């Protein structure tokens, strides 16, 4: 009898002890966060036009996101950024929002909910592909007077200058190569090429340098003055003192006065060409990243063959006269672009 009582007591004690151990183990162990699930992630961003950062608001929707209301999870983003997130509203079991300050060109790839008692859940954020409508571009002809003042008379004589403005509304950065840009002459112009490609910076600089040193009006005038002064110095022994004095004035005071009147704007104009020209390729940031650069289209020597000159008085059976007016305003152009680090992007 005593043996049976002891056996029953031991059995009950063992069962009670096992139950208590199981209870405390369940209570103290981390929750299994597999029950929490992220259904979708909504990303809102607002760029600071004057700065290098933007505000990124992440809205996480799902089920069982807040098993313990007193200890909400920490919202993390990948790639990581400096600084903690700021809650946007009170978290709930189905929606948690947070705000981050990120670089302007930041690309979100993943959102993670990290729970203080252990465990985490994550959701990849797919970046939507860029489409043609995301790349907004306009081509505008620049007046000849402005081209002369900004880039020099040599550039104005040899090139049409077109301002290309691009706004990238896509969430990814893009790159635009100069070789992928073409401009289309207006339908009313003379028959000719269906498209024209702009010159590179090195080609424009070469034309400018030649004009400044040899073919430009200023270069010709000063080259003639220098030549006359050199010839005068060579033959002045055969003439009187008055001639010698005249040669000295021509090579000295007269030349200096001419340089004062006809200022050499080469440094400023070369700087404008280098800084304002469209490079071999231009990278444009995402989410409204802009670029404003100038394209240089070579002029055709024979005006009647220039597709960018409009007939002054076009007629059905009349040839286009030689005194044609340049194209004015906006024209049609095309660009080829690619998302940064993403090949095989459709052309625009």
Largest sheet: 5 strands, antiparallel
Encode the helix/strand succession as letters: HEEEEEEEEHHEEEHHHHEEEEEE
Cα end-to-end separation: 96 Å
Indicate the mean pLDDT: 74
Give the spatial strand order of the biggest sheet.
11-16-8-9-13
Number of E strands: 17
The Cα radius of gyration reads 37 Å
What is the overall shape? elongated
Structural class: alpha+beta
Put simply, the count of helices is 7
The unreliable regions are 19-34, 321-325, 342-348
Number of self-contained structural domains: 2
Beta-strand residue percentage: 25-35%
Q: Describe it for me?
A:
This protein is α+β, with helices and mostly antiparallel strands and 348 residues long. The protein folds into two domains: 33-124, Immunoglobulin-like (Sandwich); 132-339, no CATH class. The chain has seven helices and 17 strands. It has a five-stranded antiparallel β-sheet. The chain is elongated and about 110 Å long. The chain starts with a helix and ends in a 9-residue tail after the last strand. Mean pLDDT is 74; it is low at 19-34, 321-325 and 342-348.
Secondary structure elements and pairings:
Elements: H1 2-28, E1 37-47, E2 53-63, E3 74-78, E4 86-87, E5 95-103, E6 110-114, E7 120-124, E8 135-141, H2 144-151, H3 153-158, E9 159-168, E10 174-177, E11 182-184, H4 201-215, H5 217-235, H6 241-261, H7 266-276, E12 281-284, E13 289-298, E14 309-310, E15 325-326, E16 330-334, E17 338-339
Antiparallel strand pairs: 1-2, 2-5, 3-6, 4-5, 6-7, 8-9, 8-16, 9-13, 10-12, 10-17, 11-16, 14-15
Helix pairs in contact: 4-5, 4-7, 5-6
């Amino acid at each position: 009898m005593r043996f049976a009582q002891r056996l029953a007591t031991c059995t009950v004690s063992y069962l009670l002890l096992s139950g208590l151990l199981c209870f405390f183990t369940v209570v103290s162990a981390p929750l299994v966060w597999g029950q929490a699930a992220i259904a979708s992630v909504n990303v809102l961003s607002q760029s600071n036009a004057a700065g290098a950062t933007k505000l990124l608001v992440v809205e996480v929707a799902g089920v069982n996101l807040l098993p313990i209301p007193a200890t909400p999870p920490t919202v993390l983003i990948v790639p990581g950024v400096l600084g903690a997130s700021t809650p946007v509203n009170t978290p709930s079991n189905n929606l948690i929002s947070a705000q981050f300050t990120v670089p302007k060109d930041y690309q979100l790839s993943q959102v993670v909910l990290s729970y203080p008692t252990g465990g985490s859940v994550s959701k990849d954020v797919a970046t939507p592909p860029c489409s043609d409508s995301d790349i907004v571009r306009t081509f505008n002809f620049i007046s000849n007077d402005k081209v002369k003042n900004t880039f020099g008379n040599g550039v104005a004589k040899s090139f049409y200058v077109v301002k290309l403005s691009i706004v990238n509304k896509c969430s990814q950065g893009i790159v635009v190569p100069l070789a992928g840009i073409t401009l289309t002459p207006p339908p009313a112009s003379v028959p000719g090429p269906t498209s024209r490609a702009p010159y590179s910076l090195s080609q424009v600089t070469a034309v400018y340098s030649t004009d400044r040193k040899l073919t430009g009006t200023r270069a010709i005038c000063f080259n003639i003055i220098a030549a006359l002064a050199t010839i005068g110095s060579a033959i002045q022994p055969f003439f009187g003192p008055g001639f010698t004095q005249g040669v000295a004035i021509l090579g000295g005071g007269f030349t200096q006065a001419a340089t004062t009147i006809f200022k050499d704007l080469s440094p400023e104009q070369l700087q404008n060409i280098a800084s304002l020209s469209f490079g071999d390729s231009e990278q444009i940031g995402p989410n409204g990243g802009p670029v404003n650069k100038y394209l240089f289209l070579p002029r055709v020597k024979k005006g009647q063959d220039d597709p960018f000159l409009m007939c002054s008085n076009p007629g059905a059976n009349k040839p286009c006269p030689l005194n044609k007016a340049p194209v004015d305003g906006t024209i049609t152009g095309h660009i080829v672009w690619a998302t940064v680090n993403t090949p095989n992007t459709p052309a625009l």
